[in-house]
Amino acid sequence: MAAKAWGGRFQQQTDARVEAFTESISFDSRLAAVDIQGSQAHAQMLAKVGLITVDECRQIVETLDQIGAEIADGKFEFRFELEDIHMHIESALIERIGDIGRKLHTGRSRNDQVSTDLKLYTRGAIERVDSLLKDLQVAFVERCERDADQVLPGFTHLQRAQPVKAAHYWLAYCEKFDRDRQRLADCLTRVNVSPLGGAALAGSSLPIDRHFTAELLEFTDVARNSLDISSDRDYLAEFCFCMAMIATHLSNWAEEWIAWFSTEFGFIKLPDAFTTGSSIMPQKRNPDVLELIRGKSARPIADVQQTLVLLKGLPMAYNRDMQEDKLAMFDAYDTVAACLELAAAMVEGAELQVETINAKLEDGFLDATALMEYLIKKGTPMRTGHGIVGKLVSLCESRSIRLADLSLEELQQACPDIEDDIYQVLGARNAMAALCSFGSGGEKPVQEQTAYWKEKLGL
Fold this sequence. Notes:
The chain is 61% helix and 5% strand. The protein is mostly helical. The strands form 3 sheets. A two-stranded antiparallel sheet has the order 1-2. Strands 3-4 form a two-stranded parallel ribbon.
């Protein structure tokens, strides 16, 4: 029983099946680096307050560095009977420096130790995902100049609606991913609160200095209630939601480009490196990476539910159920990070199919709203103008022509206020150019927003 941190009061060995059932080393070994980081800070604090000597602290810190290097190099043996990464590292420490190693756990429990590790790991995950999101934003913004002259149909209900600059699409995704970055930054304020020293649930009677360890670990605050520390996994649920929202935005983008890549749309060409073929149909090029990004979005979304269901029935304070919290968090993080890495490369390498887009640009009466707003400027009430343009569209459909193909006389029969300057509004490119409101898809507003994003991203 010597290997068990809690084995002193037990008379029987743990059943092997229980050891296999309760282990977490198979998935929490990735916490090794942050566990060592937290333990080294804890040792320095113990030396500061006199609970261990400066030399004992040095031995602990140096030996932990050695253990960490062995783990990083794949030379460290993991065993189920040691349960988790925390006990593996502590056991190795004790094996190497004896009683000095046994002093490391003074003033803390595995409960606050685990929470500290998770917060440090989540903090690093937030930083990485934020960086990947920025890379994706940069990829979209850098497309704006490449596609500066291109106009695209905007859609509602997947029906052609109004024309916009292609860059307006790219910047729309920048906005979505920026909200994701804002959510991560907000999540970080709750992640970056130190739980270390909360111990099992009631704190400690020893003169530990929790503010010192928080400073060493670069936490911005110290958690104020030891009971809450042991039970708190809000930050994991919040982090998983952030991942789910990013995954949802990635899925929206992937779905749009899957449609655009189809023969029916023909809007975009994807690099060969990000498409696959068919085992039977030699002509096929399939957007498998985009489809998998869309499909993998289900996992972070499910991870939110897994985390909330795990937590919803737990009484204060720590319960072993919480061992399962890492699985959802790791899965959500890994899935989103992998998708983001591929997304930026795909955005950089894709090409708009300009000839196909332009050949169909006048389809769908994209200029109808521009015509209605022209009438409004001439004094026609909005609802009246809406009805007039609707009838003109119906007339054009019956004759298989465009609004711009109507003669001035035909247009004036619908509304006498129309003048020959109407032809400066009709047509997809003219309708796009007429858009002038802040944040719209017209020439000048898009130029303004492109400049804004370049400055914001440091381009």
